[in-house]
Amino acid sequence: MTETNPKPHILPNEKLEEDNFYYRESALMTSTGSWYIDFENKKSYWDDITRTILEYPLDFVPSLKMGMSLYAEEHHAFIANTFFECALSGIPFDTEILMLTANKRKFWARAIGKPIYNDAKKIIGVRGIFQDIDDNIQKEINLEKASGIVASQNNRLFNFAHIVSHNLRSHSSNLTLIVQLINDLDTVEEKLELLDNITHVSESLNTTIEHLNEVVSIQTSSNQLKEQVSFNNTLDQVTTSINQIILNNNVTINSDFSRAEFIEYIPAYLDSIFLNLLTNAIKYKHKDRDPVINISTSLDYTNKDRIVLKISDNGSGIDMDKFGDKVFGMYKTFHYNADARGIGLFITKNQIESLNGEIQVKSDLSSGTTFTIKF
User: Fold this and answer.
1) Cβ 238 vs Cβ 268: under 8 Å
2) 153 in the Ramachandran plot: left (φ > 0), alpha (ψ -120 to 50) or beta?
3) Cα separation of 318 and 334, whole Å?
4) How far apart are CA 349 and CA 324, in angstroms?
5) Burial class for 134, CB neighbours closer than 10 Å (0-12, 13-18, 19+)
6) What is the pTM of this model?
7) Which tens digits make up the pLDDT trace of 209-228?
C-alpha cells in the first residue's frame, strides 16, 4: 500500500541548521550566551550572544587573561572563589553576579558553570552560560526600596497616631477633670482659682498641637522641589541667626565641607537640621569646658553618590545604654535643662527620613556626641 502523504526526508545538515536556528532564537529571547574555558589549550570561547551581552564586537577573540575584567570589582573575590572551586574541585555553580561590559556598564547576570572532564576523569575545562537578568534584579531592588519606604512611612504614621492619641488624651482628661471640679465647687472664688488651671492646660494643648502640626507639615512638604544647597552657606546663615548664643557660650565651630560642598536638598530642611543639632550641642555643653563643635561632609564609601554629614561635640553626652532607643522620640529628654522640650531631634529625624535619608547617633557620657546623617 502506498503512503499518500509521505513525511519529507530531512538531511542531517538541514536538521543541524534547524536546531541551531531554534537555539539562537531561544538564546536571543532569553539573553543567554554560552562560553567555554579550555584549560588544556589555555583558550576561552564565547558565542555571539555572549559577545552581544558583554558589548564586544562579534569578531572579538576573548582570552583567559581578561577574566576578572568581566566582573565588577566588588565581586572579584566571590567570582574567583567560585571558579576556583569549579575548576579544581568540580563544584558546579549557579549564581547571580554583577558583571562589567566592554563599555564599563555594570549589569546583573546569572552565571551557570559546570566542569568538563576527559576520559581519565580529569577536569579539562569549564562550560557555562551568562544570562542578562539586570531588568529583573533592578525591579527587585526597586521593589525592596519601595517596601522599605512604605514600612518606614507606616511606622512613622503609627508613631504619630500614638503620639496624637496619648498627648491629646492627657490634655482632654485634665480639662474634663477641672470642669468637673468647678461644677462641684460652691463658691465663685474657688471656681475662679481653677480657671487659671484651664488657662495653663489650654496653652499646653496649643503647644502640643503646634508640634504635631510641624510633624504633619514635614510629610506634606517633602514633595517640594529640591535645589542645590551649599553646606557652608547654610552653616553661615544658621550661625548668624544664633550668633548671640554662640558668643555667650564661647562656642568654637570647626567645619570642613571640602569632600562635599553642595547637596540637592530642600533648603529649609537643611537649615532646620543644622539649627537643631547646633543648638542641642550648645544647650547640653559640658559644665567644665567650652563647647567645640566639628562639622564635616564626606561620601559614603559604599555609594559615592550618597553624601554624609557629621556633627560632633564635646558636650555632656547621652547615656546610650539608658536612652539609646529613645533619642529621637517625641518629648524625650535626657538632661535636666529647664528649657529641654524633646521635640528638636524628633523633627530632625522626620525631616531626614521623609527624604529617604537616615540619622545615627553615638555618644559617651562626659565626652560628647556625634550625629551622622546619610542623605
Assistant:
1) no
2) alpha
3) 7
4) 14
5) middle
6) 0.47
7) 665 666 566 555 555 667 89
